[in-house]
Amino acid sequence: MAEHSVKVMAPELEVGKADFEFKVFQNSKLLGTLCVSHGAPSWRKRGCKKKSITWEQLAAAFTKEPRKQRKNADE
Known about the structure:
Blueprint: E1 4-6, E2 20-26, E3 29-36, E4 42-45, E5 51-52, H1 55-63
Antiparallel strand pairs: 1-2, 2-3, 3-4, 4-5
């Protein structure tokens, strides 16, 4: 099974216009970066451009059922 990790250590603060970035790793490899700002969230896959999403799309992504792992996902 793949191991995911997201690490955040920060005092409480209000997010302004600048992005607050969460780097998401799977098995120690960077999957992408979730960028959160006052305006809207965005997702940037490793090596790709940012893709803006709505707050509703972000909420749906966190609440939908996880996809089944591919057979060789850990290789």
